[in-house]
Amino acid sequence: MTDDICHLDATDLAARIRRRELSSREVVQAHLDRIAQANGAVNAIVTLDPEGALTAAAAADERTAHGEPLGPLHGLPIAHKDTHLTRGMRTTHGSPLFADHIPDQDELLVQRIAAAGAIRIGKTNVPEFAAGSHTFNPLFGATRNPYALDRSAGGSSGGAAAALAAGMQPLADGSDMGGSLRNPASFCNVVGLRPTPGRVPSLPAANAWETLAVAGPMGRTVADTALLLSVMAGPDDRCPIALDEPGSAFRSPGAADLSGLRIAWAPDLGGRVPVDPEVLAVLEPQLKVFEQLGGRIEPACPDLDGADEAFRTLRAQEFDLGLGPLLDAHPGALKPSVVWNIEEGRRLSGGDIARAHAARTRLHLAATGFFDAYDVLLAPVSQVVPFPVELEYPTEIAGQRLHTYLDWMRSAYLVSVLGGPALSVPAGFTPEGLPVGLQIIARPRAELTVLRVGAAYEAATRHGRRRPDLPPIPLTTPLAG
Question: Where is the Amidase domain (predicted)?
Fold first, then answer.
């Protein structure tokens, strides 16, 4: 029964709780049991509060019994990404410097998820300070891919994606600067959405005007991902870039009719990124699915000249702003890749930053023109299949040498610069059984487009219905709150 509950869609679970076919306590207990069975192998959940979760579930059942108004996530358990502030529960950012850090406030997205009725059960693993797309850190170690325990789960929302895939939670939150929602979704055969900047307001924030990093939802289906987006999204006057559209607009997007849909296909983003042949061998046959559904596909790519430099410049600036003071106060306590990004930021001039913003402006205008001609752009999410968990990052793709830990993520981070929504949907498996995701990209503010197109593709293929075959391994060490 535990496995049955834990692999139900979140939308189905929420409906059953509302109809009193399942209690919140049953649902939470089933997921706690699943965590006890699988987390020792996967290492996705790094903080757990079973007593608090069960107490909250009992209170949720009381509200149901008394006929009180119920939120869209009523009774559903969720573990928050360990970079999202959670009042009274440790938020470590994957760093020994924050090993005992217990915030005195929830950040906005955590508040919104709780207000919608979700029940906090714990926190999910991240790379140190969410830097990189492979989830490992000195506090908790590496998160393993539920489909292949010797492989990476991606990152930086790797714990979130792995917990979803393994049935430890029905929904997951995350964040994405250069692919941190999309890459782990691709690696773990789940759905991840990078929204338009401002769609999900971020508070508190060191730089409330920042538009490269965004928060967003993950789920095992497009509908589940849209359900969580509907709760996370919506205006807030304290966030200067927040979009006005209410989140409820995304709650039940449905599947699009793809007849006549104008689709661009850019397998290497116009020759800008090397892609592992294994990835393309999975993705290229998927084009026939879109054609069978009525779409018209052409090879085309928006102008991305200057996107690489703009991304790296603005990323480095943010690292210096957010983490530079920690480097000064604790030299030697941050991992080399974080230090490198901070130092890159400190080498920037005002002119460098101004030119990066000017490049983003030009790229935005070029993308606007591109999406006048095409409804969506299809591309690989990740340039590689899930790589060995012991490897910090891939150093070569298709015979091309890579020089930094960012290079293998370019198929995701070049898209970040465009500023539109990008959805990662399960697209199939390699002969070894490794998941591969497809990226569906649209113009800014067109979340409904990527969700509806993704739902149509998902219904036609059902790749996301394949579950990992995990051994029931009990926890090796207790998790503290």
Answer: 26-451
